[in-house]
Design goal:
Blueprint (H helix, E strand, L loop, with lengths): L13 E4 L9 H28 L6 H29 L4 E3 H34 L4 H4 L2 H27 L8 E2 L6 H5 L7 H34 L4 H29 L9 H24 L2 H12 L6
Parallel strand pairs: 1-3
Antiparallel strand pairs: 1-2
């Protein structure tokens, strides 16, 4: 059913996504680059997931959460890139109103889950390093499943809140989005209605969904750093920090781009900077995460090698 004009409705039935570049001659190059990035990202994350599933050494809470993070990364890049590739392939720039809202919903669902899953991973490192004697009981399979379920619930709540709030706005005039996917800052700029409440809601949800988890992550690592510095052996310190370095790198990449994207609403019109941040959020981060987690981890490297060569064993 098409949107209709009227109270809390919209006269716009589709949006025009300008994409990354507006020069048609560059579209084939962009298509090839992003198709390659998509295949590498999906392949890398699914390889990490396969390695975790088939390698008994990786059947630990840390890798359980990493496997879930890999699933989120596949989802995040799949929500945005295939649709963009389709528009480039068929020389089409339009996206329907319903498809735009759907893309927005799933993007914020996955982003919200990311925030809480990264927090769960920080909590896991805190327990492993600061509370090693009670680690197995405090991070049982039930606790792990509960933390993932809470991440799902928070992600769904976040996505529903933004999608329903956006659906109350009127879109009756310009329908050109200077981006390659639908997101809140760009859609706010096209609304004919007042967006003050929506911007306030976005700010509040950012505090709840990103700010609070970030505080918990920082608090966890303050305790971790204090515990590691009390370790007398240099080798022990190095091993403890190495288990946290990958996670901290991913946290910095995720929150750095997120803060840039959502904490400056109303400051300026959409620009190429927003597109660059969008590429980092939806393409670069999911592609880098498998590399970050496997680069200095011999267990993951060995499992990945067995996955690639087809020589793993379940015993």
């Amino acid at each position: 059913m098409e949107p209709e004009s009227g109270p809390n409705r919209t006269a716009v039935t589709e949006f025009i996504l300008l994409g990354l570049v507006q020069t048609p001659e560059l579209w084939p190059l962009v298509f090839v680059l992003f198709l390659f990035a998509y295949l590498v990202s999906v392949g890398g994350n699914l390889s990490i997931l396969a390695a975790i599933l088939v390698e008994p050494k990786l059947h630990t809470p840390m890798y359980f959460f990493l496997g879930n993070l890999s699933v989120l990364d596949v989802g995040c890049i799949t929500v945005t890139v295939p649709a963009m590739l389709g528009r480039l392939l068929y020389h089409r720039r339009t996206i329907s109103y319903q498809a735009c809202l759907s893309q927005l919903f799933f993007f914020h669902l996955l982003a919200g889950m990311d925030c809480f899953l990264l927090t769960a991973m920080a909590y896991d490192r805190f327990l492993a390093i600061c509370r090693p004697l009670t680690y197995s009981t405090r991070m049982s399979q039930t606790v792990q499943s509960t933390l993932v379920a809470v991440s799902w619930a928070c992600g769904i709540s976040n996505a529903l809140t933004h999608t329903i709030a956006l659906n109350t706005l009127n879109f009756c005039g310009p329908n050109v989005i200077n981006h390659f996917y639908c997101d809140l800052p760009q859609l706010f700029q096209l609304s004919c209605s007042s967006i003050q409440l929506n911007e306030l809601l976005l700010f509040v949800m950012c505090i709840l969904m990103a700010g609070a988890p970030l505080v918990l992550i920082i608090t966890s690592y303050i305790h971790v750093a204090a515990a590691v510095l009390r370790i007398r052996s240099v080798e022990g310190r190095k091993k403890a920090f190495s288990t946290c370095g990958s996670h901290l790198t991913v946290v910095c990449l995720f929150y750095g781009t997120g803060i840039f994207n959502y904490m400056r609403l109303g400051l300026e019109e959409s620009s190429d900077k927003d597109k660059g941040v969008g590429v980092f959020n939806t393409v670069i981060n999911p592609m880098l995460n498998p590399l970050v987690y496997s680069l200095r981890n011999p267990d993951v490297q060995g499992a990945l090698w067995r996955v690639v060569m087809g020589k793993w064993s379940l015993t």
